[in-house]
Design brief:
Layout: H1 7-27, H2 31-57, H3 63-86, H4 93-114, H5 123-141, H6 150-180
Helix pairs in contact: 1-2, 1-3, 2-5, 3-4, 3-5, 4-6, 5-6
Length: 181
C-alpha cells in the first residue's frame, strides 16, 4: 500500500485548497481579482498535470490519490462553473451539460469498477478537459486583456468544450455498454 503522504497527493490537496481563493477572488468581480483567480486556476491545472505525472513516474500511485484526484478536478470545475453562472459570465446551459456529464460518467465508472471493468480515457475526454480549462480561464479573466475580449474567447471555447463533453460522454457510455454486454 502506497503512503498517502506523498507529493502527488499533496499537489491534489493544494488544488482543492485553491478552490477557496479562486471562488472568493472572482466573486469580487473586478479586473484584478478576476485575473488573479484565473492565474490561480491555471496553477491548479498545473498541479493536476504534475500530480499524475509524478505519481506514475515515481510509482507513487495510491488508492487515496485515485479517489481524491478526480474528485478535486470535479470540485474545481463545478465550483468555477457555478460562480461563473452566478456572475452571468456564462449561460447556464453549458454548466448544466458539463456537470450532468461528470455525474453520469462518475456513476458509470463506479459501476464499471465494481465489475472489474476499466474503461480508458478517450482522446475526446482529454480534448474536452483542455478546451474546458482554456474556456474557464478566459471566463475567469472576463475583462479585456491585452486587447483581447476574454469573455468572447471563453464563450467560444466553452461551446467547443461542451460539444467535446457530449461526444466524450457518448463514447464513454458506448464503451461501458460494450464492456458489460
Amino acid at each position: 500500500m502506497k503512503k498517502i503522504y506523498n507529493l502527488p497527493n499533496l499537489l491534489t490537496i493544494i488544488r482543492l485548497i485553491l478552490i477557496i481563493p479562486i471562488i472568493s477572488l472572482v466573486s469580487f468581480d473586478t479586473k484584478i481579482t478576476s485575473l488573479i483567480s484565473a492565474i490561480l486556476f491555471v496553477i491548479a491545472g498545473i498541479t493536476d498535470l504534475l500530480d499524475g505525472y509524478i505519481a506514475r513516474k515515481y510509482d507513487l500511485v495510491s488508492t487515496f490519490g485515485k479517489l481524491i484526484d478526480p474528485l478535486a478536478d470535479k470540485l474545481l470545475t463545478i465550483s468555477v462553473l457555478i460562480i461563473l453562472v452566478k456572475l452571468h459570465r456564462v449561460p447556464v446551459i453549458f454548466p448544466l451539460i458539463i456537470i450532468a456529464r461528470e455525474f453520469t460518467i462518475t456513476g458509470l465508472r463506479a459501476v464499471a469498477s465494481s465489475q472489474g471493468i476499466i474503461i480508458s480515457a478517450s482522446q475526446f475526454g482529454k480534448d474536452k478537459t483542455l478546451f474546458q480549462n482554456v474556456s474557464l480561464t478566459c471566463l475567469l479573466i472576463y475583462y479585456p486583456l491585452f486587447g483581447i475580449n476574454s469573455h468572447a474567447v471563453g464563450l467560444f471555447f466553452i461551446t467547443i468544450a461542451t460539444f467535446y463533453t457530449i461526444f466524450s460522454g457518448i463514447k464513454y457510455i458506448k464503451d461501458f455498454v460494450s464492456q458489460i454486454e
